[in-house]
Amino acid sequence: MSEQPFTHLDVAGHARMVDVTAKQPTVREASATGLVRCAPHVIAALRDGNVPKGDVLAVARIAGISGVKRTAELLPLAHVIGIHGVSVDLEITDEGVAVSVTVRTADRTGVEMEALTGVAVAGLAVIDMVKGIDRSTSMSDIRLVAKSGGRSGEWHREP
Q1: Where do the domains of the chain lie?
Q2: Could you list the active site residues?
Q3: Distance between CA 73 and CA 2 in Å, rounded?
Q4: 112-130 and 40-48 helices cross at what angle (nearest 10)?
Q5: Contacts of residue 149, Cβ cutoff 8 Å, sequence gap at least 6
């Protein structure tokens, strides 16, 4: 039985971008989540709208969308693809800010990395906005939770 070759390596073992030219565009979607962990006084400031830098969630939403659109600039083997829809949802919880990003396209490759990048950038924007009141704010649990479309079809993370 032969081993499955790594798709991002050529025969000499050098990194390469996978050629998706022959693939037909299909509708694809991916969702990712993460958590920005905040101290209780930061959560209170977020809920009261008293963060000195302004509307944290609005800035984080725009940052998340921007991160999705710039994924191919940040990840060297990611393809430049058309992003046809992005939703960035943020919820203030007792632990901090829960971030959820869903990305849609009709293209030749999936949007999993775009969803993950959107979560990371939105979370970083939250940290940037609150670091003046608590430098210990952190981000965790960034993960893909679902994807659909393409050859591999549907996938959902088990609870």
Answers
A1: 26-147
A2: 128
A3: 34
A4: 90
A5: 26, 27, 28, 29, 110
Cβ contacts of 75 within 8 Å, gap of 6 or more: 113, 117
Q: Is the pTM of this model over 0.70?
A: yes
The pLDDT of residue 87? 98
Tracing tokens 């939703």 back to the chain, one arrives at 87
Please give the Cα distance from 55 to 69 (Å, whole number): 22
Query: Rounded to an integer, what distance in angstroms lies between the CA atom of residue 118 and that of residue 71?
Result: 8
Residue by residue, DSSP assigns 94-158 as SSEEEEEEEEEEEESS--HHHHHHHHHHHHHHHHHHHTTT-TT-EEEEEEEEEEE-STT--EE--
Residue with tokens 């940290």: 127
CB 104 within 8 A of CB 69: no
Q: Could you tell me which residue, 55 or 9, shows the higher pLDDT?
A: 55
CATH code that applies to domain 26-147: 3.30.70.640
Cβ proximity of 45 and 130 under 8 Å: yes
